[in-house]
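Intended use. Records like the one below are meant for learning the mapping from a protein sequence to its folded structure. Do not use them to infer anything beyond what is encoded.
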Amino acid sequence: MSPTNKQIFRFGDVEVDLAQGCVRRGGEELHLRQQTFQVMVYLLKNRDRIVTKEELLGSIWKETAVTDDALVQCVMDIRRAIGDDSRRPQFIKTLPKVGYRFISPVEERSVQPETPVAAPAVRPALIGVQPDSPEHPPENSPTASALLPGARPGASKRGVVVIAAAILLVTATMPLAAYLRAKLARKTKPLADVSLPQVPGRKPVAVMYFDNQSGSADLDWLREGLADMIITDLSRSDKLSLLSRQQLHLLLERLGHNEGDKIRLDEALDVARRSQARIVVLGSFARLGEQIRIDVQLHNVEDGQLLAAERLVVEQPGQMLSQVDLLSLKLASHLGAPPPGTTPETPLTSVMTNNLQAYRYYSMAVEKAQAVNNEDAIALLQKAVALDPQFAMAYGRMGYVYAVTGYDAEKAKPPLEKAFQLSQRLTEKDRLYINAWYSIANRDYQGAIVALRQIINQYPMEVEAYLRLSYLLRGEGQHDEAISILKRALVIDPDARDVYNALGLVYLDLNRFEDAISAHQRYVQLAPGESNALDSLGMSYQSAGRYPEALATYELALARRPDNLVTIFHLGNAYVQTGRYQAALAQYRRALQIGPDSFMLARAYGSIAQTYLRKGELKLATSAANKEKQLNKHSAWNALITALERGDKSTAAKLRERVFGDWPYTSRGQSFPARLTLYRHGYLALREDQTEEAIGKFQAALKNPPVPWMIDALEDCLAKAYLETGRLDEAISEYQRILRLNQNYPLAQYHLAQAYERKGNQDQARSAYERFLQIWKDADADVPEVITAQERVAK
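Structure written out for the chain above:
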């Protein structure tokens, strides 16, 4: 074929354009990394045969030493992009231990281009979002014109937001992509082996996913569900170490196993050897009329010899868990490891529940909590304990949702205490977790740190323990150790999406904005349908002063989950930080309509009060602050400020004690932000003309991390104090520091202009005012600072 021709492969609704180096699905371009694109093209060109892993590694990576993991990741990325399913492949079939084959009919054509074609280049597009998807932001997205100023006035705002977000999201992933490429190119293996700890007296065991022999889709959840139940059961024995479901998933993925396919004995033995297990458990289930038959075999890993086999017939689904208890007890006996005191009369899975529906509610709630969808998680857990009032771990997770992924420490205590009362139904590991959660509910963060370290010592593959420990260390200001802990977790599971979220938040504390953005973009890639993932990415953009990207990303998050209160507040805060006060107030009022409790309603009124204070509307600010205080007596700061602004010193004096009293809430499982407390002391000292004390408090505040979920990160508190007290050179220096950190920091250019003006540096003042007006070009016309800056520039 002539080199000027344009070669295109088409299959399904996918088009692969070799000359342009891009993939289109349904007419929309998709982003693939260069090596991933090359793997896809190689499979297409050799679709008439099986392509071995060795051939692909040699052709794509050539002299670069990488493991099979790099190839497996490429195939996963291809499947995700083109909508393929490894369990029921339409396009790419995996032949375990051999390689891959492209199995779909392909149309290949050549088109003579009208103009010379540029060199191939992979083009960016938003991962996981289709143009006609309901996940798009609403038509009245407020960010479209800001993102693409050249867009036609009549163009669809929805399309503008999606396209802009696509470009911005992928463009900013380049540092992370470079890092990953460098990591894959190392001469040594990039990922650590997933190995069970070799503890004297403990036999390492790997339980495989079960095979659904009946093919009944409504039972397919039992593939992993039965494995989970047996792992939970056997974990109660102090003579066994169990491979977790998460570790099993990772190992099977590395071996190229198709999700949903039967795990053969040779594959199971390979997984077990890699994890250093000595015994492997294989199983299957099938529906026989109303009955469900479960078969289990124990094999010796060294030689594959069958050690024991058990069969269970469950007459009714409601008997499933209690019957699996008995099955697990038999398996434990075959392994020579029955837990102390267990008998058929005291079944092993009394540590969970014997109600199958309760178990399902519990499993769904854990997933909701991981996505910080706390209201749904609590509702599911309440259903679980209603079905089984003795379900200890459901009570424990309820406390976890309230105190660890939520904020209400007091609500967390009763269910955690209930879990303690039922502690005979908890595994040793779960008892340690509940100890950690209860310490957090009591705001004993050091106690929680000790409990989580104990879990990691005893169960070194527990990614959740690393994750929660990192949050606590972050709250205690131990950021370097938090990063180290999270990187250890990523060695265990390189695709742990929640770990990337936590890593991004730690980077935000350190003002490492590009690292935070990269980590949160990886979170979005791993959880493309999660509203919380986009919210975290939006928060990184916002902290970096990249407001158009932040606004677009928040809109996408709300398109996925319109009632996500956290995102609603973050979107409102971003509007405040760009002078769009009316848009911000609309978001806070939106929060008032869906706030689930007095805490969130109080937060909404507090945000409204702060916005009105910025607008200079004291009466409205006072009204909102008083409503905030009525809903939550601990939230009295805004009422205190408005009292001082009105000159009501008597009311302010009464409120001061409440402001600095005990704060009965957690901050997502962490301590109350030190920056905020120090700032408040400094603010009041400055109001009382205690200048040096105020300066000292502000300096101390800045040694602590910012609070990205607040309207104001308080980075300019010291600069404003210098400006207010006439220390102009120090004010200028401090504002310059802030602008080096974030060139778009709210009002920094405006106050810098004021400082220059008071020093008589008119040219520098004018330049700063002009820069401020450029940054706040979309601000409301009646914002006092905008009016003043326009007047100064006009003169």
